[in-house]
Amino acid sequence: MDPESIVYGCIKDSIVGAGQGDRMRVNRDAMLSLPKAEQWPFLCQEMFSIPEPRLLSTNYQTEVMHFGASYKAVEYEWNQWIEQFEGLLSKMYWVSATVHLETELYGTHTFSWESSRNFHVPGSGDMLVQCQWSHEDYLRA
Predict the structure, then answer these.
(1) d(CA 94, CA 21)
(2) What is the DSSP letter of 123?
(3) How far apart are CA 106 and CA 88, in angstroms?
(4) Taking Cα atoms as reference points, which of 134, 141, 81, 68 lies closest to residue 103?
(5) Residue 59 has pLDDT above 90, yes or no
(6) How far apart are CA 58 and CA 34, in angstroms?
(7) Could you tell me the pTM of the whole model?
(8) Looking at 61-70, 96-105, 112-121, which range is the least confident one?
(9) Neighbouring-strand partners of residue 23
(10) CA 120/CA 137 separation, integer angstroms
């Protein structure tokens, strides 16, 4: 059986201040522009918790858009996954984004994106990324 990879995380955006409804609509449209799962892309609409359209959020200060998926050894095509994820981020408003990659063979990796300003504006290209790696040994019977 091929090794499984689990990818999950969240994209966070501030919902404090003017323009929150517009920001939420832009982010929703960006996620809805992703292909459907049956097309087998690295990123698809179904893996995201896409916020429902509304003017007022039920969240306190931060809109949290979480996602997750299981893949067959995605770490071998990780650069393509990251490229698609950053393509999505480039179309969205966000303060930070975090992706966790859990692999059977290579441990757990955490990737974090932050804007060089208070928040990322779609199309601005001001993304900074960091990667942390940890590996835990699991006893397998």
Answers:
(1) 14
(2) T
(3) 26
(4) 134
(5) no
(6) 25
(7) 0.86
(8) 112-121
(9) none
(10) 37
